[in-house]
Amino acid sequence: MKEFAREVRKDIIKMIHNAKSGHPGGAFSCVDILSVLYKKILFVPVDWDKSLDFKNRDRFILSKGHASTALYGVLANLGYFSKDFLNGFRVLGSKLQGHPSSRVNLAGIEVSTGSLGQGLSIGVGMALAMRLDGVKSKVYVLMGDGEMQEGSVWEALMNANAKKLNNLVVIIDKNHLQIDGTTDEVKTLEPLEDKLKAFGFETYSIDGHDYSQIEEALQNAKNSNNLVAIIANTIKGKGVSFMENNPGWHGKAPKDDELKQALEELNVN
Predict the structure, then answer these.
(1) How many domains does the chain have?
(2) Which of 45, 186, 199, 234 could disulfide-pair with 175, CB 3.0 to 4.6 Å?
């Protein structure tokens, strides 16, 4: 798992360097979560258009769509599409847009995201539709903690509880930073765990870079008959020393020398 996540991080930094734009900080913070989710938990067929059991797949929504390189990297390394596609990140006409787009018909992309605060509402609608259709799979929504400041998120949480959507799993990438600084400085979320419990969620708080903790929480969520929210405490820019806990790397591409240093560090750590 560590080797897999390392390769994804290297792909992320190369994509953003090539495009000269992107969001490395928030992509790096959620790589370990996505790695465990896709390698250990999700049933999402690689043969996206051919699987006989496609209807019964799990659904994944990257609500924090600016971290698209993390999802692209995971999907490419698992064979959903060729790694050659990664060279086209943010290139006009490419299927790898800056934010995930379902309009380009790319394996693994369920919905278009990027406008923060909307992914969970989409997930709630999906979960309700799946229940009505008798589909037993689950919907997993990965959100950013800064995104939790949006009012629409709390309406969606309330609706999920009202509909008792026990096929919905909310994962919060809590890296404590957003584009304008720390989440506590901008608009504190605390006490987040207590709030989620008050909204009817079975809640877990974990180290979002500890693979065993991630897997245990996700397995518990998969097997639970309740609404589940996982608060994954992470480090923005995880894996590259000069990016870690630095809000300046929220949306910034590395220069040539910075790319070299980042790759050197990722090869060692």
Answers:
(1) 1
(2) 234
